[in-house]
Amino acid sequence: MTLIEAAPGLSDVSVAETTIGDVRGDEGLYHYNRYPATDLARSSSFERVWFLFVHGRLPDPAELDTFVERIRTDRVVPEDLVALARTIGSTPGDHRPLVDLRTVLSAAAQYTGMRPLWDCDEDTRRDDGIRLCAMVPTLLGEVHRAAHGLDPVVPREDLDTPAHWLHAVTGEVAGPDETRAIEQYLISTVEHGFNASTFAARVIASTGADLPSAICGAIGAFSGPLHGGAPDRALDALDAIAARGGPAMTVADAGDVARRWARDELDAGRRLMGFGHAVYRTRDPRSELLREVATRLGGRTAELAVEVERAVVEVLAEARPDRPRYANVEFYAGVVMDRCGLPREMFTPTFAVSRVVGWTANVLEQARDRHIIRPRATYVGPPMDPPV
Ligand code: ACO
Q1: Which of 140, 147, 303, 382 is buried most deeply by CB count within 10 Å?
Q2: Residue 310 is inside which H or E element, if any?
Q3: How distant is the alpha carbon of residue 365 from its chain centre?
Q4: How many CB atoms lie within 10 A of CB 122?
């Protein structure tokens, strides 16, 4: 068999057919099953988009009501699993909520009776998928609250997912502007092609393992800073620029300060978090949407971010005129989440609250194809010793 040489990172390889969505990097567009994702974020509710990922079509009003009711029931987690989440969250050590979630979800198959995908029919897989996704915000909220010595939060039956998420973390019901901002963020980040976490989930699903295993693998891939782990670092960068400019720095000065900061970072060989993308060769439509959301919410950080974005994009273009880089989804995500009262450590977990819906759709699609994903590698080590 002749092996095909793929580009590093497999960037030039298509490994599956999908109807879930597509990212058109050269055009700066992405869609969910034909619907432009940023249009959905501007006009839909999170649950309506979630239904699209479960059923491959948008719901009518009655179907949406039934789906919303179901999510509100499914987000109530078995007591034993809540207790486990709180034990893990309160264990002494350096807590990372996604790592804690990964640990809790490892136990979820046992607590909830989720069986290997290979052994389940389509309806069971779909039910398990909805339930697991609905449990994720509740469990993340509990590991976070336990880590900070805060009381458990009883999920409220009258809240939709974005409001439930803010309530699960802070214990407060957020205002409508903050809730809608988080909802738009969640909708815009449900799915984004064969990124590292989605691919990891699909590889695991292709073995016929259970759904929680596939989601745990995805979370592991996602927790890395080159993938989902950058929004807090992007906000740290804004803080560093603000600190460098000092308390007297005006928003108008921020561009110059950011230019100097960005050049120094590049000279030191560091990456500018919240910029660049593996697929987009033009602006990331998610950062365009989130700039709009951040600006609508207002505040000094949002104003500063607009100036910093412009300056950093200029510096990156100076450094590589052949390969300009733009703000990615993470750059304004941190600004929006901070403004909505989420603590920095919960930024990447917020991403996971929506992305788990996309991972699950991919896992279920992969489970319908009964081939294991099993590529090969080209051996480049020393020649093999002759067999004895
Ligand atoms: N700052 C500085 N240099 C960069 C940046 C950046 N933000 N992005 C890319 N580069 C450089 C790389 O160091 C590399 O240089 P080299 O060829 O000299 O080694 C080169 O540009 C590679 O560029 P690309 O091919 O455009 O990017 P790649 O596909 O390798 O990486 C990635 C994409 C990982 C997102 C990268 O742009 C990056 O590290 N950005 C910062 C981290 C970040 O914001 N992550 C969140 C991404 S969004 C998401 O996953 C949800």
Answers
A1: 140
A2: helix 300-319
A3: 19
A4: 10
248: Cα separation from own chain's centroid: 35
Q: Which amino acid is at 163?
A: A
Q: How far apart are CA 162 and CA 182, in angstroms?
A: 6
Low-confidence residues in the chain, pLDDT < 70: 229-230
Helices (H) and strands (E) in the chain, counts: 16, 3
The two three-digit tokens of residue 14, written as one number: 């298509």
Count of residues in the chain: 388
Reading the block at residue 193, the tokens are 């092609």
Q: Which two tokens stand for residue 217?
A: 């693998």
How far apart are alpha carbons 27 and 25 in whole angstroms?
5
**From the CA atom positions of the chain, what is the Rg in Å?**
22
256 vs 34: CA distance, rounded Å: 41
Residues 6+ apart with CB under 8 A from 287: 309, 326, 327, 328, 329, 331, 332
Distance 42 CA to ligand 1 centre (A): 28
Q: Could you tell me the two tokens for 8?
A: 């590093």
Cα separation values, 275 from 120, 124, 193, 202, 302, Å = 41, 40, 18, 27, 16
Does 277 participate in catalysis according to the annotation?
Answer: yes
Note if 95 is an active site residue: no
CB neighbourhood size of 179 (10 A): 21
The tens digit of pLDDT for each residue in 148-204 reads 999 999 999 899 999 999 999 999 999 999 999 999 999 999 999 999 999 999 999
Considering only CA atoms, which residue is closest to atom 40 of ligand 1? 276
Give the residue carrying structure tokens 């110059």: 256
Q: How many CA atoms within 13 Å lie on the side-chain side of 85?
A: 30
Q: For 4-44, write each residue's pLDDT tens digit.
A: 888 888 888 888 899 999 999 999 999 999 999 999 999 99
| CB distance 330 to ligand 1 below 6 Å | yes
